[in-house]
Amino acid sequence: MQKIHYPSVSGLFYPSDPHDLKRAIEGYLLPCRISRSLPKAIIVPHAGYIYSGPIAGSAYGLIQQGKGIIHRVVLMGTAHRLGFSGLAAPTCQTFMTPLGPVPIDLPSIQQISQFSQFQFLDEAHEQEHSLEVHLPFLQTVLDQFKIIPLVVGNCFPDEVADVLDALWGKEETLIVVSSDLSHYLDGESAKRMDAETSQAIEVLQLEKIETEQACGAYPVRGLLVAAKRHGMIAKALDVRNSGETAGPQDRVVGYGAFGFWEV
Q1: Terminus of the chain with fewer CB atoms < 10 Å: N or C?
Q2: 3 state SS of 99
Q3: Is the pTM value of this prediction over 0.85?
């Protein structure tokens, strides 16, 4: 019998009704004008859709070009609920969302199990939203695909980059790194910090990305190392905070969407 990972924030971070969920995502994608080629990797936020959905939509709007091309997604998120070292995969075979099942690429999981920084750790995935919130977006913009879901704990950037290199693939593989930016500053302070973080990401300056700048600092830094190895360029697609989308201005969370292209 297949082991299934069921959603934990459906109805909280995003609509639990499939029709409402699809309509919400399509609304976030609608403003996107595809003016760039298909990116190899994206950084996208993972908050409730009313706060970060429009920012995530700016990246997933570009991924729509990959429908029928992308069949494998390396999905890396940060650990909000459990402290651990390395990268953790679940032991299930499928993730479930209101839009249906998403299968896990088990051969790829087996491939990276050789790394000492890799482990199976279901506890890291329990109640973890940093991966879950991206699955409905991916189900909307892609056709059939499989995922390699990895929650990233405390580890060195090279350890993340080595796993990304092993899974790099060609145009069939998309890399998605899940991260919000600054947390709980006032609106103006958040804008200043997030602008500095955005600039550091665009120039691949990983030493300037700490957990204060991005809650997904560990997978973000690893992606920046991999981007350097592969000669990539990075561009900010949208950088805003919750005070600019659906929340108050006095205590905000920052969000950024970034695309990475091989040149």
Answers
A1: N
A2: coil
A3: yes
Q: Is 18 helix (H, G, I), strand (E, B) or coil?
A: helix
245: CATH = 3.40.830.10
- Classify residue 143 by its DSSP letter: S
**Helix-strand-coil percent breakdown of the chain, rounded to 5?**
40, 25, 35
Amino acid letter for position 38: L
Q: Tokens representing 121?
A: 């750790």
CA atoms lying within 13 Å on the CB side of residue 66: 30
The residue count of the chain comes to: 263
- What Å distances lie between residue 256 and 44, 59, 174, 213, CA to CA? 6, 10, 18, 11
pLDDT at 72: 98
Distance between CA atoms of residues 123 and 60, nearest Å: 28
Three-class SS of residue 236?
Answer: strand
pLDDT of residue 46: 98
Check residue 13 and report its DSSP letter.
T
End-to-end C-alpha distance for the chain, whole angstroms: 44
Nearest to 256 by CA among 64, 38, 54: 54
Measured distance CA(88)–CA(8) in Å, rounded: 18
Are residues 247 and 177 in contact, defined by beta-carbon separation less than 8 angstroms?
A: no
Domain of residue 210, residue span: 4-262
Q: Using one digit for the tens of pLDDT, what is the confidence trace for 12-44? A: 999 999 999 999 999 999 777 777 899 999 999
